[in-house]
Amino acid sequence: MDTLVRALRPTRLPWIIAIAMIATMALLTGGAVTAPASADCPAPSYVGMWKSNSSGDLRHGPGNSITTLAPGGTVQITRGDVIQGFSYVALGGDVKPGTRAVYRLTGSPQGTWTTKPARSNGVIHHDDELRRVDFVGGAFANISVEFTDECSGSLRKVFLGTLSVIP
Description:
This protein has 167 residues and is α+β, with helices and mostly antiparallel strands. Helix content is 17%, strand content 36%. It contains three helices and eleven strands. Strands 1, 2, 3, 5, 8 and 9 form a six-stranded antiparallel β-sheet that branches. Strand 1 and strand 2 form a beta hairpin. The protein is globular, with a radius of gyration of 24 Å.
């Protein structure tokens, strides 16, 4: 029986290697054992557009922001916004690290806005992604956005909403 117990007992070397690997990963990741790309999962990836000033101060809520978590809204730039300095939009979100979001404007005006790559935590920082809205009054563009989902790694194409400049 003693021989059988010894034969079934794992050797110490694999256990020592396993513990050393876990300790090394904990030191390198600050105690987190998951990879940065999956750290937020299952929280949904999203991107959005917010009314902003040149300093990156954001306005939220209906008429001021839209995101892929609740698509279909409108960001409106009014004459009062321009007077107050809120004639910018900020782009941002939480996507797969190292990937970009591509915003396509169709209507008047037309164009494409591509963000810088998301940082290692998957965040596209809005303060790095300010776009001046110097369109003429009456401009109206539909916005669709393409981004890579952080959890599934799949490419998502979503109708975000509209951008409207009121004369």
